């Protein structure tokens, strides 16, 4: 395939290159350069005239719950009561929506019953359309902590991923790896969706946290930690966690600890805005709504403290929780700009920096010869108006692994 007459934003940090041709062979970018120097199309080679439109790397979302239903009013209730086969099929539906919205790589941060791992295998095998997936399997929490299914306390459901003590922490890390997880996800502090868990507090004891992180690293699995408060963020940074998710109540000290340890922040503005909207609309349980509203006024300052401290920011939306929608993942870039990023910074957070977090920077995240051909073609200048990426009428072509997976160009109708 030859894509001619593109305005290429390649994700390497250079200025956009007008009048550029990209040659794709198989699943790989083979050559790129000025239109005038481009090779002639071979017999049978597909030529796409981009007509001056922008070509960018396929987008990356580092935080979704791919098997969840964001229209369910109770996120955890859905996870714990919907049969796993139904969740798997929901995941296949969500995967296609994200792919067609330009997201060619996605990190899933937790579902139930390993439907996410099955989905990853099906996508890798080409049986189900979807973004290239990394997944954590089930998240690991502590007994009585965030997402530990709350029935009457004397009713004890079997929730093995709710640990108590370093031995159980180690067993759960090993179990996730055995089940096929690429990442380990820890729920370090309380969570908005679990009413009554303290958002700011670290719910793990030190020996539990260190046991989990040390073993995960030994097994070659990076760790993502759900954290709201500064205390949890600092402890996770010091324990060697790779990404902190949310960080809605962080402060300067937490940001400096993250910068010192090279910890990446994934701020998940979509989820925060979504749950605040749902809370104000009266669609969340009172205890959940109270917590949702409590982060509304702290998140921006917590994010800016990280930016000021030099923490690497990577983009993840937390799509799957109430108030979000699969296929609208690019709203996260709009939020990043609303919170002070330039459009180019937001794009880097959703391309090259996200690919680096995934350990996939040798394959995706930029448009360069030798990389996988994951590309999007966009009508409009995303550096002038980032919201063109969140508008499917502007997102006219999606290519993953060298194959066109969505085509909305007017000329192809
Ligand atoms: Zn999440």
Task: Present the secondary structure layout.
Blueprint: E1 2-8, E2 17-25, E3 28-34, E4 47-49, E5 54-57, E6 59-64, H1 75-81, H2 84-100, E7 103-108, H3 115-124, E8 132-135, E9 141-142, E10 162-163, H4 166-179, E11 184-187, H5 206-218, E12 223-229, H6 230-239, E13 243-249, H7 252-261, E14 264-266, H8 269-280, H9 286-294, H10 299-309, H11 331-338, H12 343-349, H13 352-358, E15 375-378, E16 395-400, E17 403-407
Helix pairs in contact: 2-3, 4-5, 6-7, 7-10, 8-9, 11-12
The site of zinc ion has 4 residues, from loops.
Overview of the molecule:
- The structure is a single chain.
- The strands form 4 sheets. Strands 1, 2, 3, 4, 5, 15, 16 and 17 form an 8-stranded mixed β-sheet that branches. Strands 11-12-13-14 form a 4-stranded parallel β-sheet.
- The longest helix has 17 residues.
- By secondary structure, the chain is of the alpha/beta class.
- Helix 2 packs across helix 3, helix 4 runs parallel beside helix 5 and helix 6 packs parallel to helix 7.
- The chain has 2 domains: 105 residues, Urease, subunit C, domain 1; 271 residues, TIM Barrel (Alpha-Beta Barrel), CATH 3.20.20.140.
- The protein is globular, with a radius of gyration of 21 Å.
- Helix content is 33%, strand content 21%.
- The site of zinc ion has 4 residues, from loops.
